[in-house]
Design brief:
Length: 127
């Protein structure tokens, strides 16, 4: 058994496959995800697990170059959560964020119910 870090085998494998500039999404419980995009569904019940818990756990293991959030999140908790961990944050409309979903590597679905708790994370490299 792993001693620390991510324990979910599907999530561990997906994170290990990420390369520079590839993207993935950490999503709230309601984000519509295209059928062809792999989903790692961590949602247990509404509100569990929280976006911030999942976001923090994944960012502890991933080199991040930047992120994209919805304009509708500005001034609310989701913006604060993302900006507290990522310096370069691009802002787009929620509709444009959803249009970018077909190009992501995978989506991690949380049980979060706070509106617009969705982020597209762009990977960096540790060197």
């Amino acid at each position: 058994m792993k001693k620390s870090g991510l324990l979910n085998p599907q999530l561990c494998a997906a994170v290990a496959r990420l390369g520079h500039t590839q993207t993935f999404v950490i999503a709230d419980a309601g984000l519509p995800i295209p059928h062809e995009i792999p989903v790692i569904d961590l949602a247990l019940v509404l509100g569990t697990p929280r976006f911030q818990e999942v976001f923090d756990a994944i960012l502890d293991e991933v080199v991040v170059e930047g992120a994209t959030i919805a304009h509708e999140a500005l001034g609310h908790e989701p913006e604060q959560w993302v900006r507290s961990r990522i310096e370069e944050v691009e802002i787009v409309s929620h509709e444009d964020l959803k249009k970018e979903l077909p190009s992501v590597s995978f989506v991690v679905r949380t049980g979060e119910t706070t509106p617009y708790s969705n982020v597209i994370v762009r990977c960096g490299v540790p060197f």
